[in-house]
Design a protein that fits this description.
The complex is a heterodimer of chains A (about 650) and B (about 325). Chain A has about 650 residues and is an alpha/beta fold. Helix content of chain A is about 30%, strand content about 25%. Helices cover about 40% and strands about 15% of the residues of chain B. Chain B has eleven helices and ten strands. Chain B has helices at about 70-75, 85-90, 110-120, 135-145, 165-175, 185-195, 220-235, 245-250, 255-260, 270-285, 300-314, and strands spanning about 15-20, 35, 55-60, 95-100, 125-130, 155-160, 175-180, 205-210, 245, 290-295. Classes of the chains: A alpha/beta (about 650), B alpha/beta (about 325).
Chain lengths: ~650, ~325
């Protein structure tokens, strides 16, 4: 149903027609009225307070408003949904600055301010003008090229592939002895031989793009950034479910599968297919070809790295949990099987242990934890939850298995955070009727990770489910019903959904989500206990992970996924693994720092300690068995 | 040189729970039984007295069970065919409370009738257990709770996946709830939170932390109970509930008690062993702080009662 929302702001009037459930802040944006949301629209700063002078709205949260404010009609624009025609007065005293709206799909990327292609990048172009051969100068093509490299580019020693030699002669002649080489040189040890990757006829514009890609192989999601190495710009960001999911949802079942006859090869091929498709998609977006990509820097957990390289991963699973390799050497794309330029370098970033891989070392780099003055906590929430506690002096880390629920997998109506995913949910506590927001605004197809967190929190706060996650079937409401696997809640009826089927949250889904959040909370509470630092002492909580950027802190705290502390101490960083890989792809110094981080981290094996199970069952409740740990949630329940 | 024994003073204490209501209290019981109220660890008399000593409940079934040990059949005899008779004999054997366990074969009407017959046959407070299948439990316990409004029965067994219906009917009809969780401190606490969230006061809930028989995990059950009690005394309100345990059920499940044939000769006399098994299981749990001990054999009842008297007297 459409409603008219009319705004009065600085004596100007404007109005807009929006559907039921539209957030006031969104309606204001559509109407061209600027309402600042310094806290990012999470209802925690109270600076978007507006006066509802007439009509129906529903306040999801009034955390920063006094009962008297609400009585007068004040509402937080970022926490209030439209339920009828309304008149809104935007208080003039607010100096509202325009803030950049963040693009859901494309994470913001800042090119490192000091990035200098010539100084920091290992992939370079070298333009050479060779003296053509004559009857008198019978030097062979290869020696002629080496001479030119020595004299014109100060490169005394080189190596190349057979393929390079096979194409060299023709290219030299096609270019009339003027060629541009793409080379890979070790910037840290310049005396090492330079590897010639490709030769192009003629002079290639210095500023034309030279492609590289940063890849994060997640257990559930593979993300790829296509980067112009010359400018440092990320030109395309793509992501897809890891093709290995069909062979097991978590690393353990993947390892088991890969141990079967032919399993290793199959797993390797599945992830290569996913990566190669992503390379192709990304290249298409920028009008390039996969063979134009000269380098790939790969991050991912240790199991994913082993499976990608076809290295037996069995020992990761079995005590004493040892990897075959934590830090693979740089390899060639052709060897690895990634369809970029076959001579392109594939750089797999170093990990720490079986369950703390390159995704975490890269994440620590991009989170800035290694420079933190005060103790901070870095959490990477994915299929595995890994956490690092520390500062510039020390870093301790542990890992626990959360399952793929927060990435929308392993949940009946789960999906990735793409078009059609329900990303946020509110439930009316009396009627159990939901309001939801869909990415892209169309009909819902499913629920993504942030939507699941939001749904779980709302269902809990409104009594749709109890603290143990049981669906309240006694409520006598059509939204809750007995499903095939116990109680379920209907979030969207078939008539509203894309597929025509009901979108539901089942008891099994709830259990999966509870286990996932309990594992993560238990992980960092154990980590804090181990070093004797109370969790509350953490100065900042840096949250990475594929949903990290979009997660609603309030909801995440309400379900007990994140510790209950002031929201200002949380920072959401998005996919820190791919960001770290990007930094390493661009700059050899960053690459070195990741190696240093890997060496500095102390790994704590949770299975060596029986306290984890206790912490886990204690967290297997909404928000937690020990309510004292969640005062803000206790207060919300009081309301 | 005189030694001064250090005394602990705990911030928390165990709630008191009363089962059964006399006519003055709106029921028909000859007396009610109150358990709980502890302010320190079990039987540390130098720190604090034990306000209510542990009590014994004897378990009877609505129909003669065919899976019980012949030793139990021998001792209860024909009384097992009639729950009312059985309850009367159990009272004579020293029970403070009767536990009536219903079976899947009972219809709601039968169940109500049997409960009423047991109430008529004895003046002891009554605990009623459903057959242990969520839907059936609810079908039987709701009419029973309604038909015995005011008697302050204890209804069981609530578990985290099935508690709402039983708690709701207990609230409406003035009964007490038995909340069972599988040997875990956190799970016990969680179920208590769920039940009190529905509005049932904590003094109408008893925790059943589950136990294992001697040789079948009793150490684990013991330590969970000890940890629950420590948490309670330290002030965690959601663990401050008295505990009911079922060593009779556990011990008579064990091969050592259940069967006499085909076991090693070194195991010795069957009856001697079986009663020891139940008694030892029960006594360990008494020492870990159990408030109601549910037993099956009259001889075990006698021995456990003697032990309790001695513990209290020291």
């Amino acid at each position: 149903m459409q409603h008219t929302v009319s705004f009065t702001h600085e004596e100007k009037q404007s109005s807009v027609s929006v559907p039921t459930g539209t957030m006031l802040s969104d309606a204001a944006h559509l109407a061209g009225v600027e309402i600042g949301q310094p806290c990012g629209g999470q209802g925690r700063c109270g600076r978007c307070a507006v006066l509802v002078t007439d009509g129906n709205v529903r306040r999801r949260s009034t955390l920063r408003l006094s009962p008297a404010d609400v009585e007068q009609g004040y509402a937080l624009a970022c926490q209030t949904v439209v339920e009828g025609d309304v008149l809104i007065n935007v208080p003039p005293q607010e100096k509202i600055e325009r803030r950049l709206t963040t693009d859901r799909v494309v994470a913001e990327v800042t090119i490192p301010a000091d990035y200098d292609f010539d100084q920091h990048q290992s992939i370079h172009r070298v333009y050479l003008e060779l003296t053509p051969p004559t009857m008198e100068d019978q030097t062979d093509d290869w020696a002629r090229l080496q001479t030119a490299l020595r004299t014109q580019a100060n490169i005394p020693e080189v190596t190349c592939s057979l393929h390079f030699l096979q194409t060299l002669g023709k290219t030299l002649r096609d270019g009339e002895w003027q060629v541009t080489l793409v080379v890979d040189r070790d910037m840290e040890f310049p005396e090492k031989p330079v590897r010639l990757i490709e030769v192009f006829p003629g002079r290639v514009d210095d500023y034309s793009p030279l492609w590289g890609c940063a890849i994060d192989i997640g257990t559930t999601t593979v993300s790829l950034w296509l980067v112009d190495l010359v400018s440092g710009h990320v030109r395309a960001q793509v992501a897809e479910y890891n093709g290995q999911i069909a062979r097991g949802e978590d690393v353990i079942s993947r390892i088991i599968y890969s141990g079967k006859a032919g399993g290793e090869q199959e797993m390797r091929q599945l992830v290569l297919d996913t990566i190669n498709e992503l390379v192709e998609t990304a290249c298409k977006r920028v009008n390039a070809k996969p063979e134009d990509v000269m380098k790939a820097t790969i991050s991912g957990n240790s199991t994913m790295m082993h499976l990608l390289l076809g290295i037996p991963a069995g020992s990761i699973r079995l005590s004493p949990f040892i990897t075959a390799v934590n830090h693979p050497p740089v390899m060639l794309a052709k060897e690895v099987g990634i369809n970029i330029h076959h001579g392109g370098a594939v750089d797999c970033l170093p990990g720490v242990a079986s369950y703390v891989g390159a995704d975490i070392t890269a994440g620590v780099l991009s989170s800035g934890l290694e420079h933190a003055e005060h103790v901070s906590l870095f959490i990477d929430v994915g299929t595995n939850g890994e956490m690092v506690l520390g500062n510039r002096d020390w870093l301790v880390t542990c890992a626990c298995s959360a399952g793929p629920a927060f990435e929308g997998a392993g949940v009946v109506n789960g999906m990735r955070a793409t078009q059609g995913a329900i990303e946020e949910v509110w439930i009316n506590g009396e009627t159990f009727e939901p309001t939801y927001r869909v990415i892209g605004g169309g009909k819902p197809k499913g629920i993504c990770g942030s939507g699941l967190i939001s749904l779980l929190a709302e269902a809990f706060l409104t009594g749709v489910i109890d603290k143990a996650g049981n669906v309240n079937l006694m409520a006598g409401n059509s939204r809750v019903r007995e499903g095939a696997h116990g109680g379920e809640y209907v979030l969207a009826w078939g008539a509203e959904s894309e597929s025509g089927e009901d979108i539901v949250l089942t008891r099994v889904d709830i259990d999966n989500l509870l286990r996932a959040k309990a594992a993560i909370y238990a992980g960092f509470s154990i980590l804090a206990d181990t070093v004797g630092v109370p969790l509350e002492m953490a100065d900042r909580v840096l949250v990475g992970g594929s949903f990290g950027k979009y997660i609603n802190v309030e909801k995440a705290v309400q379900i007990g996924l994140l510790p209950d502390m002031e929201w200002s101490r949380f920072e959401f960083l998005g996919n820190t693994s791919v960001k770290g890989a990007y930094a390493a792809l661009l700059d050899w110094r960053m690459r070195d720092r990741i190696t240093e981080i890997a060496k500095r981290m102390t790994y704590i094996e949770l299975s060596a300690d029986n306290s984890f199970y206790d912490a886990f069952t204690s967290a297997l409740f909404l928000p937690h068995t020990d309510m004292n740990k969640f005062p803000s949630v206790a207060a919300a329940l009081e309301r | 040189m005189p030694i001064e024994i250090p005394k602990d003073k705990w911030p928390g204490s165990i709630k008191k729970v009363t089962l059964g209501a006399t006519s003055a209290e709106g029921g028909t019981r000859a007396k009610s039984v109150t358990v709980g109220g502890e302010t320190t660890l079990p039987y540390l008399h130098f720190e604090a007295p034990t306000p209510n000593k542990p009590v014994i409940a004897i378990e009877i079934k609505s129909h003669r069970p065919d899976d019980w040990s012949p030793l139990l059949g021998e001792v209860w005899g024909d009384a097992m065919n009639d729950p009312a008779q059985w309850a009367k004999k159990a009272e004579e054997a020293g029970a403070d409370i009767i536990v009536l366990a219903l079976t899947l074969a009972d219809s709601p009407e039968d169940a109500v009738r049997i409960v009423k017959s047991v109430l008529a046959a004895t003046g002891l407070p009554l605990i009623v257990w459903g057959p242990g299948q969520a839907e059936k439990d609810n079908d039987l316990l709701v009419p029973i709770a309604e038909a015995t409004k005011g008697e302050k029965l204890m209804l069981g067994i609530c578990e985290d996946k099935n508690y709402r219906t039983i708690v709701a009917t207990a609230m409406a009809n003035g009964h007490v709830i038995q909340a069972r969780t599988p040997m875990d401190v956190n799970l016990a606490k969680q179920l208590n939170i769920l039940i009190t969230d529905m509005g049932l006061p904590a003094d109408r809930i008893m925790m059943d932390p589950t136990t294992g028989a001697l040789g079948y995990g009793i150490e684990y059950g013991y330590s969970v109970m000890e940890r629950l009690r420590l948490a309670a005394l330290q002030g965690d309100s959601m663990t401050q509930l008295p505990m009911i345990v079922t060593p009779g059920f556990e011990a008579w499940k064990a091969k050592e008690s259940k069967v006499g044939d085909g076991v090693p000769e070194a195991w010795g006399d069957w009856k001697f062993r079986a009663i020891h098994w139940e008694t030892l299981t029960a006594v360990a749990l008494v020492e870990s702080g159990a408030d109601i001990i549910v037993l099956r054999h009259p001889e075990s009842v006698k021995r456990v009662k003697e032990t309790i008297e001695e513990l209290i007297a020291v």
